[in-house]
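Sorry to interrupt, but I need a hand with the structure work. Could you write out one complete protein record for me, on any chain you like? Just paste the record in under my message, thanks.

. . .
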Amino acid sequence: MHHETITADDGEQLHVHLSGSGIPILLMHGWTANHAAWSPLVAPLSQHYRLLRPDARGHGGHPLTVNHEPDVKRLARDIINLLDHFEIERIAAVGHSMGALTLWQCIRDFGGERFSHLAFIDQSPKLMTDDMWHMGIYGDFDSARAQRFIDDLDADFVEAVLRLIAFGLNDKARETYLRNSSGWRAAREALRNINPHSAIAIWRSLVAGDYRDVLATIDAPTLLAYGTSSNFYPREAAQFVASRIPKARLSFYEGADHGPHLLQPDRFAGELIALLNG
């Protein structure tokens, strides 16, 4: 396992962790996370595959020097820069949360030809809700609520992020947050390494996105992994995504929150390997 730094086409430094050998798999983490979020999957996957785990720009504790307000379009372009740097023509790609949104943006902007297989983990194609769309965050995250969250981020970035996770659809998350369990204390410390200004800029672009039209254009075999106790999305969001992607296989993880692949990493690795072998 080793770390490499590459230069994006705008001059920003991008950071990626590499492990294993063989057919490459790109693992894209969620908002305010970093490459280490995939640690439970490294052992079961790196035995068979070459894993590329980038830190999305603005994440991983790497200061930005070129663009201090990146958006999801820039993150999507970074994927292409990464593949070009390593001379990878086609790759299997897995996106969790923001990682899924970034992959959908990449497919919108550059097409899906670079992706042999895809996996999306617990993500709705549209975060903000309205009168015609109730499958975004909480099923009730309209423009007014979205703006209140931005205000909360400006006031206290760390606690705003934690409350977004805690006070959603998962009652256990709420209970453990209120008693300040060790997991929440660790998350609080990790979030202190995030630059709020850059993270908020990325969040604004994520919450403004709508990728419902992208789903039908995906023609790669696709795994969908969703938790039945997701912090953010109702079961119907998973079913909507599955109904729109032609070659999708939907897998529900009973009792899992927003990170079903972390609750059952061996199961997820097995399902991903089955997808690739299929």
In short: The two ends are 27 Å apart (CA to CA). The chain has twelve helices and eight strands. The beta strands are 2-7, 13-20, 23-28, 49-55, 91-96, 115-121, 222-227, 248-253.
